[in-house]
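Title: Prediction job returns without error message
Component: structure pipeline
Severity: low
Priority: P3
Assignee: unassigned

Description:
Job completed but the reporter wants confirmation the result is attached to the right record. Sequence as submitted:
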Amino acid sequence: MAEDALFAGIDIGSTAVRIAVGQRLPSNDKEQIHIVGAAEVPSEGINRGVINSIEDAVSSVSSCIEKVERMTGSPVQSAWISISGSNVTLLESKGVVAVAKSDGEIREDDVARVVDAAQTVATPVNYEIIHVIPKAFTVDGQKGIKDPVSMNGLRLEVDAQIIQGLSSHIKNLTKCVYRTGVNIESLVLGVLATAEVVTTPRQKELGVAVLNIGGATTNLVIFEQGDILHMASIPLGSDHITSDIAIGLRTSIDVAERAKLQYAEATTTNIAKGEQINLREIGADEDELVSRKYICDIVQARLEEILERVEKEFKKIQRSGMLPAGVVLTGGGAKIAGLVDLTKQKLRLPASLGYPIGVTSITDRVNDLAFTTSIGLVQWGLHDTPEGTKKRKGGGMGKPVEKVTQSLKKWFGALVP
């Protein structure tokens, strides 16, 4: 892979389609990604991460691709695509194989075979594998081995995590991208790509939760000892906050969105009681004074509900108040002022905003919390290349997804000029 090769990540969300394009920076210490372009357009035909109108979704993705191509001056030929939604599930699996060579030395082929064996888990008929992530290997009964290559043994086992998605969702998503003329390098679970770029290996080892607050959903992934401990998708997001404000102020969604972006805070601690806002200044048809504290009360109530749902997920796995590296907040919904303090208070854990780590850029989009998933996809792409394969455990797509995308490639290859 050439030093100047471009990696593209497309985050197809419920409120916006976002694309980041980056390249590898030569560095003595460790690989760095440099973002050369990023663009976003409002998304249509997508609800809670699931496509409900192919034509509208294709139009949104195409428009965003054109925008970023004008910015970078290079065509986007292939990309890593995020997949999310409540129909993505995580399950544990085991694989066992005999070591192939007579001298008993374990080679990479043996590791590949045992990971393949872990995929033979009985997945539901309408689901397909997205990722197979090895947690730990066992060689002749010796457990907890992270990398068994070059070790000696007769029997190799793996404990793996299988992330699978609904077949129809995967097919619609891949069909949508192929119709724009872009090849799919890999489907990646959105919150995993986000975690790739906003957390450090040490945080994942200690125990950390990544909370990506999107428009229609809030996605959660919890790591401990470097492995995924738990995943969840909560059907609440920043769009629900906007709707609450629109109902509370009896105003339009557009005015409510501006009120949220310009005046909302997660707590009312720093808000003066008499502070008022004129809605005409943010797009309303006539003068109307509303209390800023009232807006913040509405916002706080919905954010507390989201955090209560997150706390329930922590309790399911007995980690309530017990993640040393705390909670990393990211996504467009995390921009609300005071959210870090509210999170610390409600979850009784350290909390911080998740900006991309070790990423340089010519655009200020790299510091936009809404772009962490697309930048994470670029980072994932960098590690998916032959030079970077060993940097991260876990593959890109599972075999069944590859079959689907290969066949879709053939179908649409003839249609795309």
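Comment from assignee: result matches the submitted record. The chain has eleven helices and 19 strands.
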